[in-house]
Design a protein that fits this description.
The complex is a heterodimer of chains A (314) and B (341).
Chain A (H helix, E strand, L loop, with lengths): L4 E10 L2 E11 L3 E5 L6 H8 L7 E6 L2 E2 L4 H7 E4 L11 H12 L3 H15 L14 H13 L5 E5 L7 H16 L3 E5 L3 H7 L2 E6 L2 E7 H4 L2 E11 L2 H10 L3 E6 L8 E6 L7 H9 L3 E9 L2 H13 L2
Parallel strand pairs in A: 3-8, 3-9, 6-7, 7-8
Antiparallel strand pairs in A: 1-2, 1-4, 4-5, 9-10, 11-13, 11-14, 12-13
Chain B lengths: L30 H14 L4 H28 L3 H14 L13 H27 L2 H8 L3 H5 L5 H35 L5 H32 L3 H25 L14 H12 L2 H6 L5 H8 L6 H27 L5
Classes of the chains: A alpha/beta (314), B mainly alpha (341).
Chain lengths: 314, 341
């Protein structure tokens, strides 16, 4: 599979400030999260990839096209959702998206037809003739997505697309991103909201201080922890807990269910990896009915914090 | 490309599947046209804009009235009514025809003087229309941080500047160039024109050149101001200051210095006056006066001391060039940081 975004030794310096420091990476098509604290270089990376900011050194390509030499072609094949509102005063939703289509190189008729289609798609069909200035924060995000989609790009660069949205709006936006991925559009999602990235992205690039700190599949980052488990059980809890403690199992948290036969939950840590049988034996010995046994998974947040901590050193 | 058929996750609010588009994008050579048409539409929707533009129609009507009066003079000269009309022409156009028995040879002078008079009035209206249309052209995009919408698309800085300039140029044309050309056509059809057909055609070209000059100079100056600030009110203040303060300064200089000392750059401080001097030169008004057979002294009394057109041309070209550079530099700068604006 050819890389969606590739960079070799990409650097960008503003005087003495290094915004991107020798970034070398290869991102395959799909939905990829771009994570990093403020000042990590995410926006600079997007700017360089869009060909707006010339890199100080190194090279980058997007969809196999060199960002220095093939800017116009890249911009025709990429849709960009900026972080800011970017509304043009005096335009309705339809007018705004149609205008974006014409700027991308569509004919007036095509742009208008497509504007209606994408506004319906993002859920702004009812509000399409309202002045865009009257849209709520969530609607503005949807409108920006519509203008990025109007010319049917192969790659979407989304800069904080769920900022300012209520929970329902976020669900809708994330649902749209998932659907776009199914339709074959690759997405680079720059966000500081880890749950959003966790929910829709297949892979993640973690940046900090202009460096790429970690890249990888989210699935792999969320690998099961070898010793941490959550146990759902019903029955008398005290004998079961005592038996577990006798076997050197550490109990971190207990959530008791209400009433007879209710399911209680234990968060435990085994003394070593691969000895899950102690849980089964303890249950058998105390006549406890196990309802579930789940290995605890590392969250993306943990991976993110580890990467940042590694960069900052001990 | 084909339409997708994958079922969508039943997420709240999402009921439509994404459909791919199989059309072709052009190479981005016409993006300026999209900027022009959208910009004109937005500007036209501003309150009172149709009224501003209606003034262009009034200019045409008023010009036609003047041309009709000039035509009437041909038949009424020497009569009591004719004397009244001559006085009217003297006050309005500054052309004293007392003692003249044949008006025909003065027609080119009268027509050109009429156009110069109208241009003077239209320029003041251009000042207002530009102040209404122009300030937001780039400033609004800066304020709304809308530049990423342009520069994440295949829009080059030159096409952005061209598109924005054409928006204001069209409105300037609607109150200056188009009324002048329409006046020429209507006046020629109604009253027989300034003389020969060749003269009418020549005047058409001269008016076209004057109009385009004002569109380029005024449009770029306003655009440069608009690119310097995201607050429209400051842009309006800057525009009015640049146009009106030199006019006031010019008046003071003209009042205090002898006329022969204001024929160089000192006579070209007011941009409004510079445009009028160049229009007078393009319309060949002095040459038209010469053809009447009047002595040079009488012509100078009628028109004032001659200022070489090179002086106002240098001033206006300088302002235009600086405006152009400022505008392009600002837009290129924005285009390079659009993702971060």
């Amino acid at each position: 599979m050819s890389a969606m975004i590739q960079s070799t030794g990409l650097s960008k310096r503003y005087g003495s400030i290094t915004a991107l420091n020798d970034v070398t990476m290869s991102i395959e098509p799909g939905v990829v999260g771009l994570l990093g604290p403020n000042g990590a270089g995410k926006s600079t990376l997007l700017s360089v990839l869009l060909g707006q900011t010339p890199a100080t050194s190194g090279s980058a390509s997007i969809l196999g096209l060199d960002v220095r030499r093939r800017q116009p072609v890249i911009r025709r094949r990429v849709g960009f959702v900026p972080e800011n509102d970017c509304l043009i005063p005096g335009l309705t939703g339809t007018g705004y998206v149609c205008y974006a289509g014409r700027l991308a190189g569509m004919s007036g008729a095509d742009a208008m037809q497509r504007a209606h289609l994408v506004l319906d798609y993002v859920g702004l069909g009812e509000a399409r003739y309202r002045p865009a200035e009257q849209y709520s924060a969530g609607m503005r995000q949807q409108l920006k997505l519509a203008q990025a989609l109007v010319h049917d790009p192969d790659l979407l660069l989304l800069d904080e697309p769920t900022n300012g949205m209520d929970p329902q709006g976020r669900q809708i936006m994330l649902g749209l991103i998932k659907d776009l991925a199914r339709a074959g559009i690759s997405v680079l999602l720059s966000s500081h909201l880890l749950p959003d990235v966790e929910r829709v992205c297949e892979r993640v690039v973690i940046m900090g201080g202009g460096d790429v700190l970690a890249t990888g599949d989210i699935e792999k980052m969320q690998r099961p922890h070898p010793t941490l488990y959550t146990i759902d059980f019903s029955g008398a809890g005290d004998p079961f807990r005592r038996r577990l403690l006798e076997r050197q199992v550490i109990i971190h948290e207990t959530r008791a269910g209400g009433g007879d036969g209710a399911v209680s939950t234990l968060s435990i840590e085994l003394p070593e990896a691969g000895v899950q049988s102690v849980i089964l034996e303890a249950a058998r010995d105390t006549d406890t009915k196990l309802r579930g046994l789940h290995p605890k998974r590392s969250s993306l947040e943990e991976a993110f914090m580890k990467a940042i901590a590694r960069q900052q050193g001990p | 490309m084909s339409n997708t058929t994958s079922p969508i996750e039943p997420t709240a609010g999402v009921f439509v599947r994404y459909q791919r588009w199989s059309g072709e994008l052009n190479r981005g050579r016409w993006t300026w046209l999209a900027i022009v048409t959208t910009g004109v539409r937005i500007a036209y929707r501003r309150s009172h804009m149709p009224l501003f533009l209606m003034m262009g129609v009034l200019f045409v009507v008023f010009s036609c009235v003047i041309f009709y009066i000039i035509a009437l003079l041909e038949t009424l000269i020497g009569t009591e009514e004719g004397r009244g009309l001559l006085e009217f022409v003297r006050v309005l156009l500054g052309v004293d025809l007392s003692g003249v028995q044949q008006i025909a040879e003065f027609k080119p002078v009268l027509w050109r003087s009429a156009f110069l008079f109208m241009t003077k009035a239209e320029l003041l209206w251009v000042l207002l229309v530009a102040a209404r249309v122009g300030p937001g052209l780039i400033a609004d995009d800066l304020k709304a941080r809308a530049l990423p919408i342009y520069f994440a698309k295949p829009v080059q800085p030159w096409s952005y500047v061209t598109g924005k300039w054409l928006v204001i140029a069209i409105f300037i044309a609607l109150v200056l160039l188009i009324p002048n050309l329409l006046s020429l056509v209507c006046g020629t059809l109604l009253t027989g024109g300034p003389g020969t057909t060749v003269d009418a055609l020549a005047m058409g070209w001269e008016l076209l050149a004057c109009g385009i000059g004002v569109m380029v100079f005024g449009g770029l100056m306003m655009l440069a101001l608009s690119s310097l600030c995201s607050d429209k009110r400051l842009v309006v203040v800057g525009w009015l200051a640049l146009c009106l303060l030199p006019m006031a300064a010019q008046s003071i200089i003209s009042e205090t210095l002898p006329a022969d000392r204001t024929t160089g750059f000192l006579g070209c401080i007011s941009l409004h006056r510079d445009v009028l001097i160049l229009c007078e030169w393009m319309l060949d008004l002095r040459q038209a006066w010469t053809l009447t057979g009047l002595p040079p002294k009488a012509i100078e009394d009628a028109l004032g001391p001659a200022i070489k057109p090179i002086y106002p041309a240098v001033v206006l070209a300088g302002v235009t060039l600086v405006s152009c550079l400022v505008c392009y530099w600002r837009v290129v700068r924005f285009s390079r940081s659009a993702a971060n604006v």
